[in-house]
Specification:
Helices cover 42% and strands 4% of the residues. The chain has 111 residues and is mainly alpha-helical. The chain has one domain. A hairpin with a 6-residue loop joins strand 1 and strand 2. It is elongated.
Length: 111
């Protein structure tokens, strides 16, 4: 599987326009949604952002590193599925259609 989106490491530049990209949230899982720029940025920095926002809001994510990492990981995946996935799908022109007895994603940003 070739990559459509390009991430240039230390330069922190992400390009989702490259025709060779095929980044998916779960790379070994057949799923129609390719990550857009927002998905790529979230995948790269989302956990760090969650920890920083929680810290600034005085939200305790756990009392040891293992507990904190587990809770951050849980929030990270829930937020992707509840919000970012919809943006990735919309950016890539994916409609909400049945996919293996379920919808591909849910609309959570508007009614």
């Amino acid at each position: 599987m070739e990559d459509k989106s390009q991430y240039s490491g230390p330069a922190k530049q992400i390009d989702d326009i490259e025709s060779s990209a095929d980044h998916r949230w779960y790379p070994n899982y057949h799923h129609p949604i390719i990550l857009s720029t927002v998905g790529l940025v979230y995948r790269e920095f989302g956990k760090e952002i969650i920890e920083k926002v929680a810290s600034k809001a005085n939200i305790v994510l756990g009392y040891n590193r293992e507990e904190i990492d587990s809770n951050v990981n849980h929030i990270f995946h829930r937020f992707y599925n509840a919000f970012i996935k919809e943006l990735d799908a919309g950016d890539n022109g994916i409609n909400i259609l049945p996919f293996e007895d379920d919808t591909i994603y849910r609309m959570n940003t508007c009614e």
